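Section 4.2 – Deliverable D4.2 (structural model, holo form)

The reporting period included a commitment to supply a predicted holo structure for the target in complex with FE3-S4 cluster. Inputs used:
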Amino acid sequence: MIELSQEEQKMLDGEISKAASQSMEILVALGRIYGAKRMIPITSAQVSGVSYKTIGQAGLEYLQDLVEKGAKTIVPTFLNPAGMDSEQWREMKIPEDFAKKQIKILDAYAKMGIMKTCTCAPYFIGIRPKLGEHIAWAESSAVSFANSVLGARTNREGGPSALAAAICGVTPEYGLHLDENRIAKIAVKIECELKTTADFGALGSAVGKLVKRKNPAFTGIKTASEEQLKVLGASMAATGSVPIYFIKNITPEYNVEENVDEIVFGEKELEESKDQLDSKEKPQLVTIGCPHASIKEIEDIAQMVSAKRPTCDFWICTSRKIKELAIERGYNKPIEAAGGKIVADTCMVVCPLESMGFSITGTNSGKAAKYLPNLCKQKVAFGDLEDILYR
Ligand code: F3S
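Output (C-alpha cells):
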C-alpha cells in the first residue's frame, strides 16, 4: 500500500487540477506495480517524447489535452531532442507539415512551464544533479549518465511518467532510488586499451547485448572522459536495458554483488563489435553527437576539419546552448567551411533523416548505430571520426 502525504492526496483528488490528478494516478499506479511505500520529492525532471516523428498525432493530442486540464510543472523540467532544429528547419529541408506539428508539440510543453532545452545531454549545459539527488529523467542515455557518472538517482522513466513526476514534483520510491538496487550483477573485465569514443561505443554496444538487464561493473578501464562515458552508457542502454553501470576508480559509486559472473572483453571482442556495427560503406553524411556533443567535442572537430577537409558532409548534433557557445568561440567557421553544420535541438535519429535523401550515415555512437537502420532506414558506417569523416 502506498502512503500519500496530504498534498499528494489533494493532487490525486483533483483539488489542484485535472492534470495533476491524472498525473498522480499514473505515479500511484507505478508505485503499486513496483511495490513503492511512498512518494519522494524530485529536484528535476527530463521529459522524452518530443519529436513528432516518435509521438505522432496521438502524442500531440495527449499533450494538448493535458494543457487544457491545467498541467503545470512544479520542478525544473526540460526536454529531450525534438524532430528538427527549431530555428534552421528550412535549411535542414524538414517537410513543412512536419515542422508545423513539431512547433505545436514544443508550444504544448512550454505552456506547462517546461524549458525547451531539447537535449539528451542536459549535464553539458549545467544541469548536473548531485550524488544521491532524486530526479525523474526519461532519456535512457541521460538516465545512465545521471545514475552512473553523477551518482544521482533516477529510474528509466517513460515520457508520460517523467511528465507526471514533473507535474506532481514527486516520484514513487522504488528501483534505483533505493540503495539495494544500485548494485552490479555482472562483472566486465576490460583487457584492451580503449582509445577513441568509437571504442567506448563498440564496447557499450557489445556489453549491452550480453548483459541485457543486468547492471555491469567494469574493471580495467584506466581513464575515460565524460564524452566517452556518455557514449558507453547510451550504447548499453540501447542494445541492453542498462540504467546504471560502475567503473572501478572512475564512477562515484562502485557496488558489486558477491560471486557474480565475469565477462572478459579484449582486443578481439572490440574489433568484432566494431566490425558488426560497420557496413563498410562510404557515408553520405556523418552525424556526430549521440548523445549530444559537448563544447570540447566541437572544439576537437573544428581543429580536425581545419587541418584536413572531410570527404563528406557532416552534422554535429548538440543543444542550442552549446551551439551558441560554439559560435561565440568561432568553432562554427572551420566546421562550416569544411561542409559541416552544427545542428541544435534535434538529432540524427529523431529527425526525419530518411525523408531528406540520405541512406548511408556515419556515426561513432553505438546507440545511433543501433537505431539508424530501424528508425531511419539507414545503412551505418561506424568508426572513429578519422575513419568515417575521411573514408
Ligand atoms: Fe540523443 Fe538522439 Fe542519440 S536523443 S542519445 S542523439 S538518438
